[in-house]
Design a protein that fits this description.
With about 325 residues, this protein is α/β, with parallel strands linked by helices. It is built from eleven helices and 13 strands. Helix 8 links the parallel strand 8 and strand 9. Bound molecules: iron/sulfur cluster.
Length: about 325
């Protein structure tokens, strides 16, 4: 089958709600991102995005709650204690977080994510969610991005009115991280059995990852019922062990986004790209992240939107790609 036929076949299957198998995913990832075929792939993914999402695009706002040295020292993360990049630890107060969320929600954020380090207290997180719910009205969804948890804690999160969890099996989990893959998969299993939705990106993608590794991590998210997928690139941070390995090109990022769009059928209508590449939005991503506070891809505690990428810039980027901005039901 020619690449053109292969892409058209994948598009038809995605429109019909069929997910792609591993072999097809790897085949699409093998297309040269600088080729005409990749452009065709991107165009197909954008058509599917229009159909599956009702041509709507939304913002995922994310707040880094605590800025701390983390003993897990993942090879790609600035918080790693071993890398010595965190000079002054800090934590946002509940009032500050409520103010930030109120601002994001009033400007149309559909999700607000509380990003905490691996060992942020669980009870504290639950109280924070309750305080936010009682202070900020609106149709937004609260997402938690925290450490490992069990079935009971998953139910407690849902009872506190968190709707979604961001959790992933990272690329080279157990090699570039100190976690056993089974520990991360156990938490994903708890999310699957709970009322919480799962957001699972393929991350952090670098030039070192093979197409097979990318396909396998994507499929793990799908197996655990991810309703939001997509791709996050690894940022080569000076001072971390992976600093000398370059960031993937924008075309490669957009290509992987396009493949996740075609591969997820109707299961994950929301496909996110991070950083918010304009090309990836044209090639099928309909979600971007606006973030502030402690950011594991940077040093210091960011007191504005990261890289000045704010709600208005996000909306403009969606409009340029032909989407309608959507802030929730
Ligand atoms: S990615 Fe998470 S677990 Fe790993 S070092 Fe950073 S904060 Fe710790």
């Amino acid at each position: 089958m020619s690449n053109t036929d292969f892409i058209m076949d994948a598009k038809e299957r995605a429109l019909n709600g069929q997910k792609l198998d591993r072999e097809s995913i790897i085949g699409l990832l093998e297309i040269d991102p600088d080729s005409r075929d990749a452009e065709l792939l991107g165009k197909a993914a954008r058509e599917v995005a229009g159909y599956v999402t009702g041509n709507r695009a939304s913002v995922w706002a994310s707040i880094g709650v605590d800025y701390r040295k983390c003993a897990m020292s993942c090879n790609f993360c600035s918080f790693g204690q071993k890398w010595g990049l965190v000079e002054q630890e800090s934590e946002r107060s509940t009032e500050e977080i409520i103010g930030l969320i109120d601002n994001f929600v009033s400007r149309g954020a559909r999700w607000v994510t509380l990003r905490t380090t691996q060992f942020y207290g669980f009870d504290k997180l639950i109280q924070l969610i309750r305080d936010i719910r009682s202070s900020v009205s609106g149709d937004y969804e609260i997402v938690v991005n925290t450490g490992e948890f069990d079935d009971e804690k998953a139910m407690t999160l849902a009872d506190a009115r968190a709707q979604m969890v961001y959790h992933t099996l990272r690329l080279r989990e157990g090699t570039d991280t100190k976690f056993k893959p089974e520990e991360r998969l156990a938490t994903l299993g708890c999310v699957k059995l709970s009322p919480l939705g799962l957001a699972h990106l393929v991350e952090p993608v670098g030039i070192e990852h093979t197409n097979e590794e990318i396909a396998d991590v994507f499929m793990k998210g799908m197996e655990h019922n991810a309703i939001l997928s997509g791709v996050m690139a690894r940022v080569p941070l000076p001072g971390t062990p992976l600093a000398d390995r370059a960031q993937i090109s924008e075309k490669r990022l957009a290509q992987i986004v396009a493949v996740t769009r075609l591969a997820s059928g109707h299961q994950a209508p929301n496909i996110c790209v991070h950083p918010p590449s304009p090309l990836a939005i044209q090639w099928g991503a309909n979600i971007v992240v606006v973030e502030t506070g402690a950011i594991p891809r940077d040093t210091g505690d960011c007191d504005r939107e990261w890289h000045e990428f704010d709600m208005n810039t996000a909306k403009d980027r969606f409009t340029s790609a032909g989407y309608t901005f959507f802030s929730g039901e």
